[in-house]
Amino acid sequence: MRVTSSLRWKIALTTTAVCCAVAAVLGILVHNVVARQIVGEVRKDADRELDHALGHYQYGTTHGDVNSSLNPPGLPPPLRALVARGLTGSMVGERAGKPVMWAAGPADDQALAVWIPYESTRTRLRDIDTAILASSLLAAGVVALAGLFLANRISRRLARTAAVARRISAGDLDARVGLPEEGQDPRRPRYRDEVRDVAQALDSMAASLQKRLEAEKRFTADVAHELRTPLTGSLAAAALLPEGRPKEMINDRLKALHLLTEDLLEISRLDSGVEQADLARVELGRAVRRAVTATGLSAEVEVVRDAVVLTDRRRLDRILTNLLVNADKHGRPPIEVTVEGPVVAVRDHGPGYPSQLIEQGPQRFRTGDPGRGRGHGLGLTIVAGQAAVLDITLTFANAPDGGAVTTLRLPVGRLTDGS
Question: What is the E.C. number (predicted)?
Fold first, then answer.
């Protein structure tokens, strides 16, 4: 959500910045046009009054309604220099500390100047600038809110797409993005955009992945079922062979193939999601000791603190057996099993788990241990599947001083009535 929030604010701030830039440019243009128009009107009035004053000066009369004078002390030097070249002009200046519009022209080698008040014009320009600034700020605020609203809609859809992608990564292949948003009529045709294209691509990918996994599950179950009957017959036929090394080799291979078939059947049942645990209150320390003894493997069991947990004893035995067999096959002794409350840790002192298994979890037919050349990756896959049925938190890691460590955290609670 942090990423989408950043995207939301980036879009809103970018939209606001663009709006402010456009408003500033338009404000400057409007200010220049209006100022030129208003100042031009005042300048025309000054020039008209100067023409009247020059006309009266030529006839030797005065125009009492006009503020005029020959060589007034406040006449701006640029305007005085312009008149000295025989030209007329006007400009804004000051007289007696007040802003005025000066207009001056030559009169018998002197400068005849008129001036009209400019304070009201300057105040008018300030009022116009204030109105432009207020309008720009209002427009920027409205655009910022609109941009934030639109960005929030986009970020919400992106966050929803990301959440669905995380659910798919976690194994929920039924998750889809292509659902009507809250308050939207599902019958209404929806517009197409890039975010929707990404959502549709994610849904298409999830559907394709789901189909492929379902096909793989069906193939695994079908193969296991098809192999089970001929394998049973082959085992029975092998028992009729005369004793000797050939019979032992055939029986060993057939038993290995039979165990592989049973593992595939168990995985297919776990994949189908129909497996139900028969929960009961179990003393964990005693159950672990019994499971370790039943394997016949050399392993040390230490009960630091016992606990009563809710679990299916048969499935728990299956998990522990597979972990011990895996440690014996791929690790090195000593194999240590520690019980501390509802947590069981199984550790060996071998090369440890491959990094891919730690990051992605166990995967069938992938051991990550090609150098050893043994195993199909089914044992740990069954462990993960049975742990999911029992709601056991399963963690694969490597010890700092070497060796693979598998941690099981079992649920603790009371059984409900009738369970």
Answer: 2.7.13.3
- Tell me how far apart the alpha carbons of residues 344 and 393 are, in angstroms, rounded to a whole number: 11
pLDDT reported for residue 372: 44
Which amino acid is residue 90, in one-letter code?
S
Which residues of the chain have a pLDDT value below 70?
Answer: 1-5, 62-66, 171, 179-193, 216-217, 219-229, 231, 235, 238, 254-275, 363-377, 413-419
Estimate the crossing angle of helix 313-330 against helix 284-295, to 10 degrees: 50
In sequence order, what DSSP letters do the residues of 142-205 get, joined into one string? HHHHHHHHHHHHHHHHHHHHHHHHHHHHTT-TT--S-SPPTT--TTSPPPP-HHHHHHHHHHHH
Helix (H, G, I), strand (E, B) or coil at 75: coil
- Contact call for residues 269 and 381 (beta carbons, < 8 A): no
Q: Identify the pLDDT of residue 234.
A: 72
And the tokens for 346?
A: 């199984």
Which pLDDT score, from 0 to 100, does residue 370 have?
Answer: 47
SS3 91: strand
Q: Sort 169 into a burial class: Cβ within 10 Å, 0-12 / 13-18 / 19+.
A: exposed
- 301 phi and psi angles, rounded to 5 deg: -110, 125
Inter-residue contact 50 to 114 (CB < 8 Å): yes
Q: What are phi and psi of 44, to 5 degrees?
A: -65, -40
| Cut 0.85: pTM above it | no
Q: What are phi and psi of 343, to 5 degrees?
A: -110, 130
The residues near 383 (Cβ < 8 Å, ≥ 6 apart) are: 319, 322, 323, 362, 394, 406
DSSP code per residue over 12-72: HHHHHHHHHHHHHHHHHHHHHHHHHHHHHHHHHHHHHHHHHHHHHHHHT---TTS-EEES-
Quick one: pLDDT at residue 371? 46
Tokens of 374: 């043994």
Q: Euclidean distance between the first and final Cα of the chain, in Å?
A: 40
Reported as a single tens digit per residue, the pLDDT across 375-410 is: 446 778 878 888 888 888 888 999 888 889 999 998
